[in-house]
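Study this protein:
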Amino acid sequence: MISAFRKALGTAALCGAALWATSEVRAETSYRLASFDQLDGWAQDDHEKALGAFLETCRDLKASDWQSLCALAQQQSPSAARSFFELFFRPVLIEDGKKALFTGYFEPELRGSRYRGGRYQYPVYKMPPEARRAGTWLTRRQILTSGVMEGRGLEIAWVDDPVELFFLQIQGSGRIRLPDGRVIRVGYGGANGHNYRSIGQELVRRGIYNAHQVSAQVIQNWVKRNPAAGRELLFHNPTYVFFREVTGVKSSKGPLGAMNRSITAMRSVAIDPAYTPLGAPVWVEKDGARHVRQLMIAQDTGSAIKGAQRADIFIGTGDQAGQEAGKLRDPGRMFVLLPIQRAYALLPEDL
């Protein structure tokens, strides 16, 4: 049964991998297969948790080999999770000549209201139709100072901190806790099409901080101490992100990732889909303040996540997760777990 299944996987995988390997981005990319005993800490991981995260999105994978693996994954008992990954996948180290970098991101929780008033003065906007049609639209400054958004009912909510709202836009999703304790969940709804410019790098350029000193908390404190200059600092980044209200996601679940499914703290990772297929398991090894040796699932993307060994780890929800995510910036290595025949099809023909 297993050999027949692998044969079925092989036919689909060879076709998919051949197309993948001939794309332009692959021209200078190298692939090296590894065994599971070469993955540092593999045997000690909680593979059951990784299998749960994999099941969250695998039903959405279109290729027949992935669909077959998803069907098998749904039949696995928790105790068989490790065997499932070892039997049907092979770890592949994909490199593009750039240094590996692992960062962290989180789901922020802001204080807000459905209505403007008192401390709640900063709007969380839906995307206007003309911005969606335009491709590249007004800058952040123009959106917030020209009055173009006012009186149109585009406000989802009003929050009490412009810097937290700025970082909500960077994260792309979050929660807004209302005065009565209820929570609004918002997700990425579009952007104005301008390239992102780092306000942290701008503070370094001005000589206000050294690069190692800059964090989200440092930026927030500086803006609060310097409200007029702080407002101008935020305008340095012309990018503006709009949101949509997310319903139908349980509060116990994580935010929606790029696959429009909930992501899982310390089991979901944002990757560059030019190198790593969305939905694929990835083995992450990194040191630093938080030592990580874990199997995660590539369930998200990000505009700053570019490269074969570039990844952003989802830490969780709230301030503590945000503080931890802000400190994470470490080297390491990441293996992509691919269906067996798909993995072998990536190797050079002369091997």
Notes: The radius of gyration is 22 Å.
